[in-house]
User: Fold these one by one.
Assistant:
Number 1:
Amino acid sequence: MADSAVNNPPQFPMTRKCPFGPPSDYAAIRAEHPVSQVTLQDGSTAWMVTKHDLAREVLASPKVSSNRAAPGFPALFPNIHLLSRPGQFISADDPEHSRHRRKVTSTFTVKHVKTMQPAIQAITDAAIDAMLDGPTPVDLVQALSLPVPSLVICELLGVPYADRDFFQSRSSLLLNRNTTVEQRMVATDELRGYLGELIAVKETDPADDLLSRLIDTYRGEGEYDRDTLIGVANLLLVAGHETTANMISLSTASIVSDADLRRRVIDHPEATPELVEELLRYHSIVEAATSRAVVDDLTVGDTVIPAGHGVINAVGAANHDPDAFERPDVVDPDRGARHHLAFGFGVHQCLGQNLARAELEIAINTLFARVPDLELAVPLEDLPFKYDAGIYGIYRMPVRW
């Protein structure tokens, strides 16, 4: 595979190793050609970086751009440039990126997230209460994984949770690599239209929520534009529930499949933060967000990537680099994996990482404290994993106890 990666660039994304690990091709490519070309869905090519130290260098370099509309940005799905609309600062470079990000940073600090923990705990308790009151088996995705982060981000932003089916279905379409161009356009327009109507109400009837506060902040700085705030809201809403929901499901599947991990969570809940870091590293569910366009000739290892080319920092490969993590294909909660790249690296490192950690820790500890005998209701290999999605996870996860 490594030699063919040079002469015949393999397809990206690659098929994951069932059911949890990264694509098996990564190891051979990383060992012999850590910077190599891959072929994308539309037939174009991009460069793929598979080593941990090199990926960090790229993500910290001023010679790359996060702008999805920049020449050469990897076309990981059709119309990727739609992610570069005003306000969606994940797709912006400085100074625009920092101008928007700094307006919401205080909401996602460690200090502020700590004040949110009682609310997260109450939301988690209510979800598990409802789950235990119902019949078994139950789909954990619908019972716990999606409701917890969805309700948290809805309450934070001021988005009605009653509308969750609408925005979750549109988010799912936007994150599926098989969504057609027409479907993606419709889902984008519908979600933006919904948020625009919501924001218009808050402009004249503000509430105690982040979107209302952002209206005041932008107005106070003489920068208010509804279309921009729609972009900010879109980014926070989609990213705020999809990633954590998938991690709750995958983490639970990992724990119920490993007696030692289950016992650790039950006996030592205080050690769950370290387990969460390791599971974030091991599963590495997001790779597209760390793609970049090269705007000035960039040297990565022994390779020069010319301006106008795209580069994909394969997080799943970097987080399984044996030079960065000893025995990377083993889940080792004691390894101290906080230098993983699951949240990216550099100025675009995930804004919501502290909130995600809190939600994961509370969900895992509460679930196994209250349902210590939780088990899968189907064989692990029969679970419908999201091999076709831009954010890896599980579509449905029947469990019983």
Note: The beta strands are 35-39, 45-49, 64-65, 138-139, 291-294, 298-300, 303-305, 310-313, 375-376, 398-400.
Number 2:
Amino acid sequence: MLAGVFESIGTLTLKEVPEPNLVHDTDIKVMVEAASICGTDVHILGTPPSHPANVDTVLGHEFVGRIVEVGKDVTHLSIGDRIVVDPTITCGTCAYCQSGHANVCENFTTIGIFENGGWAKYCVLPARNAHRISEDVPVEIAAMAEPLSCVVNASEKLQTKPGDTVVILGAGPMGQLFIQMQKAAGAGTIIAVDFSDYRLNIAKQSGATHLVNPQHDKLEDIVEQLTKIGADSVVDCVGTLFGQAVELVRKAGKVVLLGMNDKAFPEIHQCSITSKELTIFGSIIQNYHFPKVVQLLESNVLNLETLITETIELKDIEKGLELMRQGAAIKIIVKP
């Protein structure tokens, strides 16, 4: 079968690989119906890479598919089921898994990053990482289950109240999902911030009430004019803007750090955090949120169609990657 394989630093190769077989009796085999390109995939394929991955791995950790084979010990899923995939395989035995914090498992691995993933016709994975989803949900929308799960996890930390003011720093894919989640939660003012007018235009469709391009507008002044005291919550979807988030949030407000950049070391005025009595959250992937995500997708509460820039075949995946590198796309959907 044709697959998109991370072959060496900066290189994705489309090549024929053997069709996978079940390894364990608790595995399932899935025919991939749609996958998406994540910013993480772009980071993996950077030169140098800014996210780790295993060489010779089929990439693609955001995908939906249909079960074509089940191991003999799989009883909760059946051939023909449509499923979305939680790509994080946790050990279940480390101190964090045992205490209910599986998203920070000490021994995790990831489908589509460290194990073969969804940029191919078939993928084999543990049955416990699959979640049934309705046939009524278009596959292009279902393919966004994994990034949405990360945003649901982060959004729960904010506990947004009706009428709150939320600033979203970065209007890429995760920022767009966060805007839509905050709108659904009842936020009254949602300020989207990005250097790209293209992304800001999509942010308006996602539900942002105010759009700020720091190249043209002074963000601090706009937040002051709108709130008088600062935003109730600020979300950094970039991974480098902790200091700015602390400046923008009101006293007793909340900051969520969702974006990740291992090379960033921003200076933080710690006294501001103490004197403003801020609550700071880090948020990594998701923690048993997939059932909620499936419900969200099936309820059609969000406007995810606006985030799909283009749907392509696997053979054209380099085109999709280039659009993502250029910041000219929000979500590229791949049909293997």
Note: Residues 239 and 259 are 4 Å apart (CA to CA).
